[in-house]
Write a structure and sequence with these properties.
By secondary structure, the protein is an alpha+beta fold. The chain has 13 helices and 8 strands. The protein has helices at about 20-25, 75-85, 160-170, 170-185, 195-210, 210-230, 260, 265-275, 275-285, 285-310, 315-350, 355-380, 385-415; strands at about 10, 35, 95, 105-110, 115-120, 135-140, 140-145, 190-195. A 4-stranded antiparallel beta sheet has the order 3-4-5-6, with helices on both faces. A two-stranded antiparallel ribbon has the order 1-2. Strands 7-8 form a two-stranded antiparallel ribbon. A hairpin with a 6-residue loop joins strand 3 and strand 4. The chain starts with 8 loop residues before the first strand and ends with a helix. One of its GO terms (biological process) is protein targeting to membrane.
């Protein structure tokens, strides 16, 4: 899903506590505006409202449980993604950067003027239960109380573990909202910008930050360059957000001059190029070729050792795969059985049908009436003790009247609801 990117302005240096003082200074000092989101007035000079940013004070949507179920209330994956992509504030600066629906980038700007990207990865459910999203600051290295050494956001409590995420009962859009707000108002200390696109954006903003027109143009560059570079660096991994560090092979430096060629004439050089055997022999005799060959042999030996180690673990991997497959089959069977039992539980815990209750009461009332009538007929024929007959007859007939009263109350309640 690709959403259009728009430009909006945020007076990021203004907070609710500073409004009275800054309103007095507006007539004397022009306030620079930072382009990002639509969290300020249209003119870009006003102060954020009480719901800054993006009506965050609104009550979050909560999950609700099904009547009678024993499962904890939980949002579906589609609901989480929809809340994120359709968020009134975030959707203008959010892009999907994976082939599937797992990874997204949201561009935002801090109060210091730094443009940052928070990468949100929503892993697939495990065992029928949702897993906590992983959020990472992409393309930078920095320090912040919410960040670990790999720039993963770990300070936000609801995403610290799968259990914490499920128990929080909040949507993904609200969670990203809170993280972006915190990173904007309490920005991290940027040590290094590892992403080339972000680095050029930051440089352009510093050079053109004093001009409103330049600031607006930079905002457009944020959306294009930041998401373009993020898409190029996207990893195919389906587990965690990609890292922004690469392992480089320590290759020997290629010499700018080759002394063996300095003494050769043009004709000798042409002859060397035309004779493939002589050219190959000459290349093999260069010192740099020996270094390259030595490096290649080292890499080959290392790959051979790793391949041998992998082959030694092949049987173990096959055994584990077989065990996992069997466990998966058992789990699927248990889940089917659980679903059947849950349906039965829902049926048992659901409110009974009033028509069915009335039908059963009518039948029971009729039975109790016949029992009392048979008792009276038997007494007339036998002429038994009067006191015993009256006591037993009243008891049986009382049951009949109780059931009739219950029917009347239920019918009256149904008519009143209609």
């Amino acid at each position: 899903m690709h959403l259009p990117y728009r430009r909006h302005k945020l007076n990021a240096s203004t907070t609710a506590a500073e409004q009275p003082q800054q309103q007095q200074q507006q007539s004397r000092t022009p306030q620079p505006s930072i382009t990002m989101f639509s969290w300020s007035t249209p003119a870009g000079r006003g102060t954020p409202n009480a719901g800054y940013p993006g009506a965050r004070n609104a009550s979050p949507v909560r999950a609700t449980a099904i009547n009678g179920t024993i499962r904890a209330p939980e949002f579906t994956r589609a609901q989480h993604i929809e809340s994120y992509l359709n968020d009134g504030t975030l959707k203008r600066s959010t892009r999907q950067v994976s082939q599937d629906d797992s990874t997204y980038d949201t561009v935002f700007q801090t109060t210091r003027g730094d443009t940052l990207i928070v990468r949100v990865h929503l892993p697939p459910p495990s065992g029928g239960q949702s897993r906590a999203p992983a959020m990472t600051l992409a393309g930078v290295r920095g320090r912040h109380s919410w960040l670990d050494s790999k720039m993963r956001i770990t300070g936000y409590a609801p995403i610290q573990s799968d259990d914490a995420w499920r128990s929080s009962r909040i949507l993904l859009g609200a969670a990203v909202h809170e993280v972006v707000k915190h990173m904007q108002l309490e920005p991290p200390e940027i040590v290094e910008i590892t992403d080339a696109g972000l680095r050029s954006i930051q440089a352009n903003r510093k050079n053109n930050g004093s001009s409103t027109r330049s600031s607006t143009a930079s905002s457009a560059a944020v959306g294009r360059s930041a998401h373009s570079s993020a898409s190029q660096q996207q990893s195919a991994s389906s587990d965690a957000p990609p890292e922004y560090s690469s392992v480089l092979l320590d290759m020997p430096e290629i010499p700018r001059q080759i002394p063996e060629l300095d003494a050769l004439t043009r004709e000798e050089l042409d002859q060397l190029l035309e004779d493939e055997l002589e050219f190959t022999s000459f290349i093999n005799g260069l010192p740099i070729f020996d270094k390259i060959q030595s490096t290649a042999n080292d890499v080959l030996d290392e790959n051979s050792k790793k391949a041998t180690a992998n082959l030694e673990k092949e049987e173990k991997v096959k055994t584990l795969h077989k065990e996992v497959t069997e466990l998966k089959t058992k789990l699927e069977g248990k889940l089917e059985h659980f679903a059947t039992l849950e349906q039965k539980q829902d049926a048992l815990c659901a409110p009974p049908d009033k028509k069915d209750i009335l039908r059963q009461l009518a039948k029971a009332k009729k039975e109790s009436f016949h029992v009392s009538e048979q008792l009276a007929e038997g007494w007339v024929e036998d002429g038994a003790n009067v006191d015993g007959f009256v006591r037993e007859f009243v008891e049986k007939r009382n049951i009949h009247h109780i059931r009739a009263a219950k029917m009347e109350r239920l019918q009256f309640a149904s008519a009143k609801n209609v």
